Amino acid sequence: MADNPDHDAIIHEAVHGRALHDIARSHDLTVAEVRKVIDQEAALAFSGEQLRREWLLEARRLRELGQKYFGRAMTDDDINCAAIFIKTSERLATLTGMNAPIGHAVQVIHATAPPAAQTSTEQIRAAIDRIRGKQLPKPDEPDDDPELLKPHLGGP
């Protein structure tokens, strides 16, 4: 594991759900330092060499269990031992990659963006334009109505 005994304690606390800032406070560290300890431990635990070691040990355990229950199932005609053997055999096959899934489905979800909602100003302008009988300008056409460009000074 870690060279520093505090590293084991930090990992243990994190595994059991303690907040990083609480771990940092109890070990006189910063949260960044606690994260660094966790990152170092993850790099060690999930390196190729470490994973191969763990897979080897797990495969050996499963083989030994399988042999034990296979022998009992065959000599004693024990259905429970046969079921345990089959389960260990399936787990070993999955671990070693021999029990790949038959197939998989990929679902691509494509959603179009919702239409942009009109602002209150645009809604009022559209209402006025409908009352006046004017067509709304297309979004890519400039609105160059000379009547709209004149300042409104009041009066009739």
Shape: flat
As a whole number of angstroms, the C-alpha radius of gyration is 35 Å
- Considering DSSP H and I runs of 4 or more, what fraction of the residues is helical? 55-70%
Low-confidence stretches: none
Mean pLDDT: 84
Number of strands: 0
Number of helices: 7
Structural class: mainly alpha
Distance between the termini: 88 Å
Q: β content, as a range? A: under 5%
Largest sheet: none
* Oligomer class: single chain
Secondary-structure element order, as H and E? HHHHHHH
Polypeptide structure, described:
Helices cover about 60% and strands about 0% of the residues. The protein has helices spanning about 5-15, 20-25, 30-45, 50-75, 80-95, 120-130, 145-150. The longest helix is centred in the middle third of the chain and has 29 residues, at about 50-75. The protein is mostly helical and about 160 residues long. It is built from 7 helices and no strands. The N and C termini lie far apart (about 90 Å). Among the domains are: about 5-45; about 50-95.
Write a short abstract of this structure.
The chain is mainly alpha-helical and 156 residues long. The protein has seven helices and no strands.
